[in-house]
Structure to design on (224 residues):
């Protein structure tokens, strides 16, 4: 059920009462051309959300479930294509900070409060020129071993403020200057290395200008 449709923020935002996955549904509708960029979907309840590496993301009531798509040629042209998740995550992280949160961004795409995850971002390019970005944040409820954000924030107001931020077309180079400092907090955590199929410490990782890291003598990219 569509609750409402908002326009005027540079894209159309469709608010749903419930869906299986904003990420999957948006991709399907883009591929069958029933929707076209720029467009966004948000839902009150998400039954079958997608996390990093196609893992499930539990969709509890009251949380942020947001997916949006844009044409690649409308984005600042200095964003490395394998670091879209860092770019979009960091802008939301800054907005949450402005609202009073102590959230930080663990490399490459996870939102944390202290030592617990409160959300994450995944991105996917389809048809060669359309970017789909999906973000989940625990605003009201969280599964065990996770946490909720440390501020009380209205979901719709947050979404609208976020898209206003994105309209500023902030360059990657300015995001990266600040993210270099943020990255130091990631050194206390482990990263799941898909190739090695195990968790590896980020303690000695070297952050590169394109958002990738040098880890154990090889480059690792944020392909999420």
């Amino acid at each position: 059920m569509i609750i409402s449709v908002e326009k005027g923020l540079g894209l159309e935002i469709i608010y749903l009462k419930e869906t299986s996955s904003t990420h999957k549904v948006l991709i399907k509708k883009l591929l069958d051309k029933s929707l076209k960029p720029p467009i966004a979907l948000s839902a009150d309840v998400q039954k079958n959300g997608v996390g990093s590496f196609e893992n499930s993301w539990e969709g509890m009531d009251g949380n942020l479930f947001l997916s949006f798509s844009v044409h690649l040629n409308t984005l600042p042209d200095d964003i490395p294509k394998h670091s879209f998740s860092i770019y979009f995550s960091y802008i939301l992280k800054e907005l949450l900070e402005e609202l009073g949160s102590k959230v930080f961004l663990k490399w490459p795409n996870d939102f944390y409060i202290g030592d617990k995850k409160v959300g994450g971002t995944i991105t996917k390019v389809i048809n060669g020129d359309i970017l789909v970005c999906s973000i989940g944040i625990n605003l009201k409820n969280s599964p065990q071993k996770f946490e909720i954000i440390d501020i009380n924030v209205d979901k719709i107001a947050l979404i609208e403020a976020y898209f206003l931020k994105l309209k500023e077309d902030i360059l990657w180079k300015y995001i990266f200057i600040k993210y270099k400092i943020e990255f130091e907090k990631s050194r206390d955590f482990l990263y799941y290395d898909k190739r090695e199929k195990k968790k590896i410490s980020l303690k000695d990782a070297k952050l590169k200008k394109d958002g990738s890291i040098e880890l154990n003598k090889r480059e690792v990219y944020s392909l999420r």
Residues 51 and 149 are 18 Å apart (CA to CA). The chain has four helices and 15 strands.
